[in-house]
Write a structure and sequence with these properties.
The chain is of the alpha/beta class and about 350 residues long. It contains 10 helices and 18 strands. The two termini are about 20 Å apart. It comes from Pseudoluteimonas lycopersici.
Length: about 350
């Protein structure tokens, strides 16, 4: 792989954000109306700043989605539909992980196994291949990689450092050592080093501790991470251990990271099941950061933390309570496409 290829940070310029519209053939069917409202709010928020590419299952889904978006006064000049089969809408994990070399791109097409075989994923595993076949991307070559890796499991600072969790990668590849996984990830993703977190999890999460629910890089050698200050909460000890791990991390030149702990939402239950509500599952777009809101008193405090971590960007809250019913949030249903790729 050419040495000039690099994995851009999410805060670098983007051409669009990729999403997939929920419909009755997805796992959202039982509560479709609520999740549609979230998607409308999300697309409206993204379209204020850049284009949105919406995957739709067929013409009927496209017609319906367009009607809902137009009726909510979304800027349709910034919306593009593409018809493609998909099992579900978690495009962070099935969409393309994009490297760039100037104005040329490489779409890393890792295996998507439904988070270790938990769910059917045949169409999702072919999503990148099918999008590429429709000439959606410009100056890009697709690189199939026979290795299970989800986009939500990794985060990069765009300067050669990758952040991930041991629990997830070990769950997907139990026979591989940390050294082996480090070498593979660094090679495929053009990273100088891989930082591993051994702690941190969310009840209700079925991704095996994706890092995008726990800790994320921010510009200027910063890390934004989910904290838990409620000593009575079952998460407290694990998140305290994760916070200590993050505090011990160092930049490539040996300095501590600037740290931005996020507040903790009160437990959200669904029929007695704890839902995975994390403010770390935010989405960066051109000029803004979109942050989940859960109808909780901590929502505004989380937005204030993000404003400090991203002082040059507008902070936009998106109602995400319907998403956590299916164990994910805002970042999980999106994939940014770097500037020039479209």
């Amino acid at each position: 792989m050419p040495a000039a290829l690099r994995f851009p940070a999410e805060w670098e310029p983007q051409s669009a954000v990729l999403v997939a519209w929920p419909h009755a053939g997805t796992d959202w069917a039982e509560r479709l109306a609520g999740v549609e409202d979230t998607y409308i709010a999300l697309v409206a928020a993204i379209a204020r700043f850049e284009d949105v590419v919406i995957c739709v299952a067929d013409d009927d889904v496209e017609t319906y989605a367009e009607m809902r978006l137009r009726s909510n006064r979304v800027d349709m000049q910034r919306v593009r539909f593409v018809t493609v089969p998909y099992d579900d809408t978690w495009l962070r994990d099935s969409g393309p992980i994009t490297l760039r070399d100037g104005n040329a791109f490489r779409l890393l097409d890792f295996r998507f196994t439904g988070w270790g075989g938990k769910f059917e994923a045949g169409d999702d595993d072919r999503l990148v291949e099918r999008l590429d076949a429709q000439s959606l991307f410009r100056d890009a070559d697709r690189a199939p990689i026979d290795f299970a890796l989800e986009g939500g499991a990794i985060d990069t600072d765009g300067a050669g450092t990758l952040l991930t969790t041991w629990q997830c990668l070990h769950e997907r590849h139990p026979q591989a050592s940390r050294e082996e996984l480090t070498e593979k990830l660094a090679g495929w993703l053009q990273q100088d080093r891989v930082l591993w977190l051994d702690h941190g999890y969310l009840e209700g999460d079925d991704t095996d501790a994706h890092v995008d629910t726990l800790a994320r890089f921010a510009p200027g050698d910063a890390i934004v991470f989910q904290a838990c200050d409620d000593e009575s909460d079952s998460h407290h000890a694990e998140f305290k251990a994760m916070a200590d791990e993050i505090a011990a991390l160092r930049t490539q030149d040996g300095r501590p990271y600037r740290l931005f702990p996020l507040p903790w939402a009160r437990p959200i239950l669904d029929g007695g099941r704890r839902l995975a509500a994390s403010y770390a599952n935010f989405l960066i777009v051109n000029g803004a950061v979109l942050i989940p809101a859960y109808d909780d008193e901590a929502d505004d405090a989380a937005a204030a933390v993000m404003a400090n971590a991203f002082p040059d960007r507008e902070i936009v809250q998106v109602p995400c309570r319907p998403l956590i019913w299916q164990n994910g949030s805002l970042h999980c249903i999106t994939m940014q496409l770097p500037e020039g790729l479209m």
